[in-house]
Design a protein that fits this description.
- This protein has 6 helices and 5 strands; from the N terminus they run E-H-E-H-E-H-E-H-E-H-H.
- By secondary structure, it is an alpha/beta fold.
- It has one domain: 3-Layer(aba) Sandwich (Rossmann fold), CATH 3.40.50.
- Strands 3-2-1-4-5 form a 5-stranded parallel beta sheet, sandwiched between helices.
- Helix 4 links the parallel strand 4 and strand 5.
- The chain is globular and about 50 Å long.
- The structure holds adenosine-5'-diphosphate (ADP).
């Protein structure tokens, strides 16, 4: 069985993340979504809220693709998390050039820690490539419409969190 780990903050999960998860279903039998606790990043949603949103969205993808999807909060080294869940590959999404430098460094460091785990990069469909959780939060905070960036449930959760109707 091929197991992949897709790590991120998912604050909140967007249509860009979901597109990557869909694409990963062609590569793995089980995808573990690693939700980083990342308190330092000052997430808008607390860990339980992020995990609940990821779980709800992943249940839909499992129904559509048959891929098993598990959600695993983690606060340790990524490579240790991959070993903990039995993953042979780490899945990352690549957006613009800006992502590349950081990801390039991460692969180098992770390889030095464990050469047996490959990192696989996927690109989202063009219409989702520009979506970033950070900007979605900013737009929602400033009263903009985030309908084309997140699912309806996530949009409702965002507006509720920000005291919008
Ligand atoms: P992190 O804190 O690791 O950047 P994110 O939740 O922002 O966490 O992103 C998790 C992963 O999903 C990263 O690999 C990121 O590049 C990828 N990703 C996020 N948004 C998109 C998108 N719109 N298209 C492709 N990949 C994306």
């Amino acid at each position: 069985m091929r197991i992949g780990l897709y790590p991120g903050t998912f604050d909140p999960i967007t249509l860009g993340h979901l597109d990557i998860i869909h694409r990963a279903s062609a590569l793995v039998d089980r995808l573990v979504i690693g939700v980083a606790i990342n308190q330092d990043k000052g997430p808008l949603f607390d860990l339980d809220e992020r995990v609940a949103m990821v779980k709800a969205e992943c249940a839909r993808i499992t129904k559509e693709t048959g891929m098993e999807c598990l959600v695993h909060p983690f606060d340790n080294l990524l490579i240790d998390c991959a070993r903990d869940v039995g993953a042979s590959m780490i899945i990352r999404g690549l957006r613009a050039v800006a992502d590349f430098e950081y990801e390039y460094q991460m692969v180098g460091m992770n390889r030095a820690l464990d050469d047996g785990i490959e990192t696989v990069f996927l690109m989202a469909d063009a219409e989702y490539q520009a979506i970033a959780s950070k900007l979605v939060k900013e737009i929602a905070r400033l009263g903009g419409d985030v309908t084309t960036f997140v699912t309806q449930d996530v949009r409702d959760a965002l507006y509720a969190k920000l005291g919008r109707s």
